[in-house]
Structure formats: C-alpha cells, structure tokens
Fold:
Amino acid sequence: MTTWYRLVHPALRPEVNMAVDQHLFLEAEQGRLTRPVLRVYQWSVATLSLGFHQAHRRAVNRDRAAALGVEIVRRPTGGRAVLHDEELTYSVVAPLDPPFSANVQHNYDDLARALHLFSERVAPGSTIYKTPEAPDPVQRLGGAPCFASLSAAEIAAQKKKLIGSSQKVGKHAFLQHGSIPLKDTIDKLEAVTDTALPMRQYMTHLGELCALSGRPIPHTAQLVNHLFQAFSEVFQVDYTDYPDPQALPQVLDLAQSQFKNPEFTWRK
Structure:
C-alpha cells in the first residue's frame, strides 16, 4: 500500500483556495512534491469560479453577482463557470507517475472511480458518464455554466451532472479539482451566470440524491471521511497529513498577485 498526502481545509477565501491548489501543482511540477495530495475544502464566501481560458463577458453577470454577495475568481484549470456555495470542493495534485499520466482523459477516468464510489456511499443512484455518440449541443454555448453539460467520466445521477471537475496537465504533474454540490443553489447560479438554460434539467446535488433514497445528507465531516475512504479503497492507499501551506509566503503571494488580481480575473 502506498501513501498519499491528506489535506483538509476549513472555509477559505476564494483567492487562497486557488492559490493553495496552484502552489501544490507547482510543487509537484518542480519535483518537490513526489506523491499525490488529496485536498478537500470549502469557501468562506459564495464564489463563482471561471475557467482559465473562459471569457467572463459571456459567463458572469457582475452586477447580479455583486448584489447577491457572490465573489469571482479565475481558476488555474480550464472549463466553465462553477458556483461554490453549499458544496465541497476536492482537488488532486500528483506527479505524472502511475497510476496517473499526461493523458487528461486517463486521469479523469481514474479519479472518476473514486468519486463514484464516494457518491454511492452517500446515496445510491449515480453513474460514471460515458461519452455520447453525438456531442451535447449545450457544450457549444460558450457562456453556459459547467454543470449545464456532462463530459466523459463525470459523475451523473438521473442524466444530470452531480460532480463537475476540471484539470490541467503540466510537464511533470497535474491538478484536477471539482465541485460536489450539497444543496440546491440553482437559482443563484442562474442569476449570476445570466444563463437562459433551465439548470434544474442539467444538474443535481447530493442532497437531492439522498432525499430520493430516503437518507439524510451526512454532516460535512462525514462526507469528508467518505471521500478519503473512497480514494483509499480505489487506489489502495493510506494517508499522511500534508503540512498546511496556506500561510506560506509563496501561497500568499499567489493569492494576491494572481487570484485576487483584477487583471487576471477579468483578463478575458
């Protein structure tokens, strides 16, 4: 059995959450982090995260976001807008060594097995989504939120997205992080993204899955334990705690110079 790092954070500021993930990625990319890190965290304020390459003008209504107290941050990974509110976020940072590789879909497929086991432990009814024969037309809508369409190896329930993830691969490491909605925040998502799509047709959340199976949704600490246990079983690993990096000067610098910097957030 191999050992991964475990890192659990309480609710942090948006720029700090992204800075920690980016810091871990850089540590692995530069060879200082030699084993995977599984991190689970939450957000101290409702936040809409934009994909690294996403054009904000088609993705967010800034006035509505401000009125609803929703902050905006740009992720270091690709993909589309995600609302982080009443949810858990996971991230995996790892060198490009087995079981992982430089192939994005390979990593998605591997991590999906653990995410699916986690969701089934919480409440049955989820599946690992397979690539459809015909492309989803919603994927061609540039301003559509992440949860408006399913991609291969994402976790779905009743043909709706349950867990949404995004990934980036470097020369020596990769970062994948994703949102696990716990409650219904769809009205807020529709408002801040200004989407005309009826998002309840496209996304669901763990609370709904639990209700359908007649189970109460577990407390956050129980969900975190379920998530680590699922990864442990799928990848046959145990854990050692990773030293909390959030107060490191390089993390604080990333938070301020990149992820809280308007020039970065609104650059596209």
About this structure: Residues 34 and 213 are 40 Å apart (CA to CA). The mean pLDDT is 94. The radius of gyration is 17 Å. The helical segments are 14-29, 62-67, 104-122, 186-193, 206-212, 220-235, 249-259, 262-265.
